[in-house]
Amino acid sequence: MKAVVDWQGDVCFQAESETGHTLVMDGPPDHGGKNRGARPMETVLMGVGGCSSFDVVHILRKARQDVTGCRCEMEAERAENEIPAVFTKIHLHFRVSGNNLKENQVKRAVELSAEKYCSAAIMLTRGGVEVTHSYSIES
Question: What InterPro entries does the entry give (predicted)?
Answer without folding.
Answer: KH_dom-like_a/b, OsmC/Ohr_fam, OsmC/Ohrsf
